[in-house]
Structure formats: C-alpha cells, structure tokens
Design goal:
Blueprint: E1 8-17, E2 21-25, E3 33-37, E4 51-58, E5 64-67, E6 78-87, E7 91-95, E8 101-105, E9 123-130, E10 136-140, H1 143-146, E11 161-170, E12 173-179, E13 186-192, E14 205-213, E15 219-222, H2 227-244, E16 249-250, H3 258-265, H4 269-281, E17 285-288, E18 291-294, H5 297-303, H6 308-313
Parallel strand pairs: 13-15
Antiparallel strand pairs: 1-2, 1-4, 2-3, 4-5, 6-7, 6-9, 7-8, 9-10, 11-12, 11-14, 12-13, 14-15, 16-18, 17-18
Helix pairs in contact: 2-4
Length: about 325
C-alpha cells in the first residue's frame, strides 16, 4: 500500500505530537507515515489507536500530507470544478474543496484561440491525474470519460430550452454537456458556429434550444432565438451597424460569402438574408451591387405614397 496524493485512505492514528498534529500509517505497526496537521483536522478530533479516512495531497514543501477535508475530486475520477484563478505561465487553478487548488495546465487549450479559454467562475469537467513526480494535476474530460455517466436525451427535449456547459471546442462549433437535472449527469450535445450569437468559452454555462435529438441520444442546440424573433434582433443589429459606418453603407450584401458573414456578424447566410429582407421591405436599406446602403430621410420621403393634397398641388 502506498501513500499516494489524490487518494482517500483509511489510516491508523499512531500518535499525536503537539504542536504538530497526528501521525498516521497503515495499521499500528512500523511503516510509512503521513502527517495530519492540526489545521487539517476539521470536525471531530482524531483519537490515537483509531482508524480514520483522510485525503492525501502534497503541501507547499512537496511533502505528502493528510487532511480530513472532503475533496470534490479524487485520483482517476471526473468532476465539475470551478475556475478560481489563472497564471499565464502555468494555467488554470480549480477549486477542489480542500482549501487548495488543482492545476489544469495551459497546454491543454488551443494557443491560437484565447477567446475560447475559460474565465474565473467557469466550470470545467476534468479528470484528476498525476505528473511524473506523483503530484496532482487535472486534464479536461474527454468523450470516454463522460460515457459511463451520460444518458440518451429523451425526444421530449426537442424545442425545449436547456442549460449546459461547453466541454470542448471544434473547428466549426463546440461540444457540450446538457444538464440532466433529476435524470442524471446529462446528455452530450453540439452547437455549431451558425447557431451561436457569439463565441462560447470552454467551461462556460449556456442556455440553448434543442433543435435536434439524434438517434444516438445526443442533441444539437442553438443559442440563437427562433427564426421570427431572431430576424427582428438580427435586423436591429445590422441596422445599427450600418448607421455607425461612414456614409451609412457596408460592404456586405446577400451576395457576400457565408464565411465572411459568419466571421463579421456571427450569422448564417440565411439568417443574414432574412434580416436584410426585413429592412429592405421597410424601406430602411437598399442594395447596390455588393454594398448595402442606408436609405436617407429624403429618399424615404420620395418613396412614400403622396397624400391627396400633395397630388393636387402637383
């Protein structure tokens, strides 16, 4: 038996030495010992010649130490932990419930996409592992780690609003875990870029609409509003953009490529065209070649139907 960091162990309380605390081992006989400091003895004080359950970790001097605090994660298991801090040379530090934090190395995140890195307060699904020196580390959970815990999404979820967390990013979208509530941990999902109003971070919590329940029990989601509501919101956003442009014009139209539209407005081309159609129908914009122009007040006056008095004067 080994005194391994990241594990829960039942150990024998061999002796108490003031002002240090207790010394524990595997049974009352000779063998390796671990220190349980007074400050780590939360709850009832241990009694000599009894067995207690402790969690083992490395202290600030790299010594294996015991605590009676209950961790949120143990070696080899997965848990959802909150981001407590970030260090630009090391990575993200996660709250693990024992008054110390678990390091998630920065190298696990795409260096060219810092906009999808977690922020303080985000929640990450991670698995605890060890480095070569036996110290506790975290790694992002993968599909295989979720498999024993997830369930197939019910068809009743279709068109429902569900909460979830982003678990990883892909070239055209993000992988998610959709909160299962009382049913269980959750179901796996995916949100493609065209279904987002803004980029989502790894660990970010979101609320999205289930647009598809697949045969394998996974779901597709969208954080965009329904088409009708989305059309109104998109139109307002595009109109505001044009108004802020020099000369009231933008180099985008229904002839612009889907990639350029997605990159600039985070909209699919079909959603972009619906919004433009609404604005043109209302006489607020006009397209000229590959440009879209704001209709001036004078142009709007010329285009509106003349009243009976105006026709008589003409």
């Amino acid at each position: 038996m080994n005194l391994t960091a990241g594990t829960l162990q039942r150990l024998w309380v061999r002796r108490e030495i003031s002002p240090y605390g207790w010394f524990l081992g595997f049974g009352p006989e000779e063998g390796p010992e671990v220190h349980l400091p007074y400050g780590e003895a939360v709850g009832n004080r241990p009694e000599v010649d009894t067995e207690i359950e402790v969690f083992l970790f490395h202290d600030d001097k790299e010594r294996i130490t015991a605590t009676l605090r209950k961790p949120l994660i143990v070696l080899g298991e997965m848990a959802k932990l909150e981001v407590a801090d970030f260090h630009p040379h090391f990575g993200f530090f996660l709250e693990m419930g024992i008054g110390r934090q678990l390091l998630l190395p920065m190298k696990q995140f795409p260096p060219e996409r810092r906009n999808v890195w977690p922020q303080k307060g985000d929640e990450l699904f991670v698995v605890m592992k060890q480095d070569k020196e036996g110290r506790m580390l975290a790694r992002l959970a993968k599909i295989d780690d979720f498999s024993p815990h997830i369930f197939r999404a019910p068809t009743s979820w279709l068109n429902q609003m569900r909460e979830g967390w982003v678990t990883d990013v892909f070239r055209d979208g993000v992988f998610t875990l959709v909160d299962g509530g009382l049913i269980g941990l959750g179901a796996l999902g995916y949100i493609n870029d065209a279904s987002m109003t803004h980029p989502l971070r790894i660990g970010q919590k979101f609320c999205g609409r289930v647009t598809q329940v697949r045969e394998d029990g996974r779901v597709s989601l969208s954080i965009r509003a329904s088409k009708e509501v989305g059309r109104l919101e998109d139109a307002d956003r595009i109109l505001a953009f044009i108004k802020e442009r020099p000369g009231g014009a933008m180099p985008y139209s229904d002839q612009t490529s889907a990639e350029d539209i997605q990159r600039r407005f985070q909209l699919s081309k079909s959603a972009f065209k619906r919004a433009l159609g609404k604005l043109m129908k209302e006489g607020l914009i006009v397209q000229k070649g590959n440009w879209t122009h704001l209709v001036t007040t004078e142009e709007q006056s010329e285009d509106r139907p003349k009243t009976e008095n105006e026709q008589t004067e003409a």
